[in-house]
């Protein structure tokens, strides 16, 4: 029964994200789902809730839905239409709404399942995949990969992100290198340390090559 619900939901999400180019393509969802399962195993979280929340976590994002409310309503309608039991619906919606609430003043995740899926989403922004996504995003926005004349801003508002020039390399300092400090679960912290070290090695080599020293 749960397996069928997961399969139907995968198809629903895949169809919705078919033409998505804002960095929230289906394979981001695919990775977050697998990573959530991996972390859930170690942290003793409910697999069904983690997989469902991972699959649906970006549907309520402003970039995909008109507004967050419309997105959450759509997720609710979907879960009801495939007869997911009420306590599961409430739990999944609560995770998704906390996740799509952006910015530093976001609420703490209440359940271990929420912590797991949030960790998986953040992990997908670092490591080799995170580097790839950053350069892809920057390229799509017409940014340079690096420009020594553009300063790094330690804290950036959403407005600044939209309106000011940045580079792929600046994004490492503005966001990626900070993500490991925000992990909720012990196992995700371990994975984040590993991915973080990979970012640092990448940057070190990048600047050496930039100056022609390596
Ligand atoms: P999410 O909603 O999953 O947190 P975002 O929409 O903020 O992700 O970003 C999608 C991907 O694009 C992430 O890998 C992120 O690091 C990257 N990204 C976001 N903003 C920028 C930017 N200004 N420059 C380069 N990469 C960015
Ligand atoms: Ni995401």
TrEMBL record:
Xref: Gene3D superfamilies: 1.20.58.1910, HD-domain/PDEase-like (1.10.472.50)
Signal peptide residues on this chain, from the entry's feature table: none
Domain HD/PDEase: 21-135
Pfam families tied to this protein: HD
Alphabetized SMART domains for the sequence: HDc (SM00471)
InterPro entries assigned to the protein according to its UniProt record, in alphabetical order: HD/PDEase_dom, HD_domain
SUPFAM superfamilies reported in the protein's UniProt record: HD-domain/PDEase-like
Transmembrane regions: none
Name the UniProt record assigns to this protein: HD domain-containing protein
Organism: Fictibacillus norfolkensis
Lineage: Bacteria, Bacillati, Bacillota, Bacilli, Bacillales
């Amino acid at each position: 029964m749960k397996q069928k619900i997961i399969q139907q939901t995968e198809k629903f999400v895949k169809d919705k994200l078919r033409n998505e180019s804002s960095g929230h393509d289906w394979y981001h969802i695919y990775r977050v789902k697998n990573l959530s399962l991996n972390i859930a195993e170690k942290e003793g979280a409910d697999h069904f809730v983690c997989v469902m929340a991972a699959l649906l976590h970006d549907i309520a994002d402003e970039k995909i839905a008109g507004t967050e409310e419309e997105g959450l309503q759509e997720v609710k309608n979907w879960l009801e239409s495939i007869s997911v039991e009420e306590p599961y619906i409430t739990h999944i919606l609560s995770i998704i709404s906390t996740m799509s609430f952006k910015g530093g003043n976001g609420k703490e995740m209440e359940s271990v399942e929420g912590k797991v899926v949030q960790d998986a989403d953040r992990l997908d922004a670092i490591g080799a995949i995170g580097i790839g996504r950053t350069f892809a995003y920057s390229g799509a926005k017409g940014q340079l990969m690096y420009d020594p004349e553009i300063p790094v801003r330690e804290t950036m508002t959403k407005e600044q992100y939209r309106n000011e020039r940045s580079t792929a390399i600046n994004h490492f300092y503005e966001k990626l290198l900070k993500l490991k400090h925000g992990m909720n679960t012990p196992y995700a912290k371990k994975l984040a340390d590993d991915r973080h070290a990979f970012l640092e090695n990448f940057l070190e080599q990048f600047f050496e090559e930039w100056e022609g020293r390596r």
